[in-house]
Amino acid sequence: MFILILPSYLISIVRLVHPSSDAYLIRPSDCLQALDHVGDKSDSDETDYLIQNANENENCIPREKERTTHFESPTNLASAFLKQHPTATIPSRSKSECDSVEFLKGKKAKLKPEEASMAMKQHRWLIITALTLFLFMCFPAVLYGVVPPRMLLNKLSEGKYLTNNVLWFNQTLDHFSAYDHRQFQQRYYEFLDYFRIPDGPIFLVIGGEGPDNGIVNDYVGVLAKKFGAALVSLEHRYYGKSSPFNSLETKNLKYLSSKQALSDLAVFRQYYQNSLNAKLNRTKAENPWFFFGGSYSGALSAWFRLKFPHLTCGSLASSAVVLAVYNFTEYDRQIGESAGAECKAALQETTQLIEQKLATNAKELKASFNADYLEIDEDFLYLIADAATVAFQYGNPDRVCKPMVEAKKAGEDLVDTYAKYVKEYFIGTFGVNVQTYDQEYLKKTAIDEDSSTRLWWFQVCTEVAYFQVAPSNDSVRSSKVDTKYHLDLCKNVFGEGIFPDVDATNLYYGGTKIAGSKIVFANGSQDPWRHASKQTSSPDLPSYTITCYNCGHCTDIKGCPQSPLVLEGNEKNCSSPDAVHKVRQKISEHIDLWLSECIDTGKSFI
């Protein structure tokens, strides 16, 4: 991090010592963050507030116009375009208008060239000293490697993004209405360091069921470098900062669906291609596109190729949950299989003991798991089940199995051992907020960092279900986590009339019988979600299963373990690195072939 900051710092010093005729002042711009003023409107107002707020303020510029790159000659085209150093002039505003910091804008100082030069020369050493003190005072973590212990949580620590510079564009709210022309602002990112100008491919990384805080430095980045591709990532509507409304009440969620999200991708793809053409001073040119996604966004990647085959040369569908499942008993069965006989037995006995204690002393039991505010017992049991599954799903089986098997052999208290694991790993290292298992908490309509849980439950309760219910026998999780529990939760959190129409979803997309082409599926052998993915292979729809002890969710992209993030999706920590390498080689070959066919035939061009 210090290495990354130092060049910018030195450049600033050079500019101070050798000032140009134009002096630039840097200051924050708050009007671009309309959510700062959501309190000015009623939560029930269904107007497109984000766009409206920006348009009403004459001192604000639209987000999509905030970054204007100037190309002065063919020589600096590549560096300007790749490094994205835009300049923009923003109208003057009062200090009170600039209290919120989201973006930094360049504003030309109102000084004559000779005045600017003289002022900078007179005060440059004072400014240099101030900047140096600022660097050492404000970046101790950078200098000494001190990172807050809970920095990871569910988020990625700094330095693990290829970029997290935010861009915005205006997205259509309802793609299926001829009369509703409202728009909202959708967040996206671009990384162009590997881009082979002007005809390199564009790799689009689809945002999933959570905030998109940047383009992650995983194996997709390695592929982008290999193919000379630009990387762009679009945040899923409603998640993160791409919310159309300032309230997440149920009636405002009617535009949250996979169908709307796919149309978002199509509109964005056209917008970005046109924007790229404008930057490169060309018209009607088309770069070859390839789509990437994992888990739910892996399903979106497959579905996009199915529904919009002319807009992408192909798709990678990593751990893609393309099959909507009402009672997803296979999920729990896979946990038992991945755990192995000893660990499975220990977990099953722990579940039984927890159920017994829950009947006699629920308050004390829940408190031992830091979950005393989960009043509904089934919410607590769902938390207990999820805590075990993440270890297998994300390539860390020993984190739960080793202490539980050892405790069972030693005759130690299994519940206490499991509570320690839940608090240290599931809540501590993995960063789960226990409150998100509380149905009353899920009713919250205010937008905050935990809103993703409510949003994903809405998609679960309306489209895909994936109800992780206990099998009728030999289950790891409590039998009380059943279909009724899930349906009651949907009704309690979102109201009457909410029901997951999985048949309609599978009819629309095809489930595991998806009839698309040029989609490569990849799954990890220990991932419980693979049973909702396509695991049979065909020439047009190749499917690979990476088999190894710690190969879980999205191993082909994330490496091992799958969480926390491994830079570039490194495979060295997988129990069988060769198995991962072979599948990645196959994926690369498919991308190479489909890109070449796309370029040769032009079939995937508008």
From TrEMBL:
Family annotation (Pfam families): Peptidase_S28
Membrane spanning residue stretches: 125-147
PANTHER family given in the database record: PROTEASE S28 PRO-X CARBOXYPEPTIDASE-RELATED (PTHR11010), SERINE CARBOXYPEPTIDASE S28 FAMILY PROTEIN (PTHR11010:SF115)
Cited SUPFAM superfamilies: alpha/beta-Hydrolases
Domain of life: Eukaryota
GO process terms (BP): proteolysis
One Gene Ontology cellular component: vacuole
Family annotation (InterPro entries): AB_hydrolase_fold (IPR029058), Peptidase_S28 (IPR008758), Ser_carbopepase_S28_SKS (IPR042269)
Stated name of the protein: Serine protease EDA2
UniProt KW keywords: Glycoprotein, Hydrolase, Membrane, Protease, Signal, Transmembrane, Transmembrane helix
Signal peptide positions (record): 1-19
GO molecular function, one term: serine-type exopeptidase activity
Family as reported in the entry's similarity comment: Belongs to the peptidase S28 family.
